[in-house]
Amino acid sequence: MIGFIIYLLPRLDKYLALAATIISLAYSLLLFSQSSPITLNLLDNYGVKLVADQLSAYFILTNALVTMAVILYNWESSKTAFFYAQAIILHGSINSVFVCEDFISVYVALEVISIAAFLVIAYPRSDRSLWVALRYLFISNVAMLFYLIGAVLVYKANNSFAFAGLKGAPPEASALIFMGLLVKGGIFVSGLWLPMTHSESETSVSALMSGVVVKAGIFPLLRCALILEDLDGLIRLFGMLTAIFGVPYMIFEKDSKRMLAFSTIVQLGFILAAPPVSGFYTLTHGLVKSCLFLLAGVLPSRNFKELQQQSIPNSLWIAIVIASFSISGFPLLSGFGAKALTMKNLVPWQEVAINLAALGTAIATAKFIFLPHAKVTTGRKLTLSGWLGIILLLTALFVANAVYFDAYNLGNISKALGIIAIG
User: How far does the signal peptide extend, from start to end residue (predicted)?
Assistant: First the structure.
């Protein structure tokens, strides 16, 4: 609703958008304080139900912080009310996915996300942005067509759209639903559309797409894995394959934004590899990846070879190093705890591949860590509000350590430092 109000009150666009993210932030914190899930049955006969629990809280918190940082980052820019309205409509529709527990509600929410994301990507109205936006919309619509057919088959078998009905549905239903969600979430081979979309979009949009939008595609997969034990192994397998699949692309990529996009594929694999603890990793990845995309937008070039030939400001380099260390699993940052918790919840056949993916992540992010830096006073600079957005994300990376203090033991610390040192 706030997104539409922004159209009516364009002079208050930034303030209303920021207020919407604060409401999401407050609601996510409220969910963390609840001892049991909040449920709402909308249509009993059709299995349409909303569930807000701890998993939802992590995803909504991620969405709130990332969107808030993007709004602050653009506070002093010339973006119109249209951008903020679409960003908040996108924000709200993503949140709605995180509380759905039936296939038809997820379908409606994902379709709204597709339209809102299309409009945000196309916002610059350049030939390139329009092509990338249309490409994204086409891929999303085709994926959701398969998903919808699968959802109808689930209803036909159970007279219900509930996730639990997937167990009694024909195998074709599972295949079609999974096909749609895997494409939408950018998982394994079906995620090869993701690098171009995320890297060629405008900086703020890249942060939103990689930080939260792709999470909407994998959330139903995680929910199904937690509800139906038979699917847990399959989801873990896709997670492992996705994590290892993106590593060579990430390591050998010479374009900074494309490298970050391939890194997103790898990190999505980590999230799916351990569904029971996926919320914490989702939060950490959303904070890190949106931060790195926002910082990459200020770099003098996207090409790593060119970046090695010119210094960047010390302040910018420090921010990049903190975010890069977090995604590599360095102690004192939440990426360390998230990786340790994920590793703890792996099954034996996943461990080798996921550890290799962690090593690959450290190797790839070293490209950012070893960029030359100096006290530079010329070139592109972040505005004060831009720095507020970056500081918000970096501060959250430190604060989120509180989620899993048990990670801080000699074994985990030694392993993390060893992987980073090798990388």
Answer: none
pTM (two decimals): 0.95
Residues across the chain? 423
Helix ranges (H only) for 98-193 are 103-121, 127-158, 171-185
Helix (H, G, I), strand (E, B) or coil at 373: strand
Tell me the sheet residues that pair with 162. 102
Residue with tokens 């139900």: 49
Beta bridge partners of 403: none
Tens-digit pLDDT profile for residues 203-260: 999 999 999 999 999 999 999 999 988 899 999 999 999 999 999 999 999 999 999 9
Yes or no: say if 340 and 331 are a contact pair by the CB < 8 Å rule: no
* Adjacent-strand bridge partners of 38: 52
Relative orientation angle of helices 278-296 and 256-273, to the nearest 10 degrees: 180
Burial class (CB in 10 A: 0-12, 13-18, 19+), 19: middle
Write the DSSP string, 173-203.
HHHHHHHHHHHHHT-GGGGTTHHHHHHHS-H
Q: Check if the beta carbon of residue 150 is closer than 8 Å to that of residue 172.
A: yes
Which residue, chain included where needed, has tokens 């792709």?
214
Q: What is the pLDDT of residues 270-281, one digit of tens each?
A: 999 999 999 999
CA separation for the pair 210, 312 (Å, rounded): 24
**What is the helix (H) or strand (E) element at residue 317, kind and residue range?**
helix 314-328
Q: Which helix (H) or strand (E) element contains residue 70? A: helix 54-73
**What is the residue type of 242?**
T
Interior CA angle at 396 toward 391 and 398, to 5°? 100
- Burial label for 243, CB within 10 Å (0-12, 13-18, 19+), is buried
Q: What residues are paired with 303 via a beta bridge? A: 255
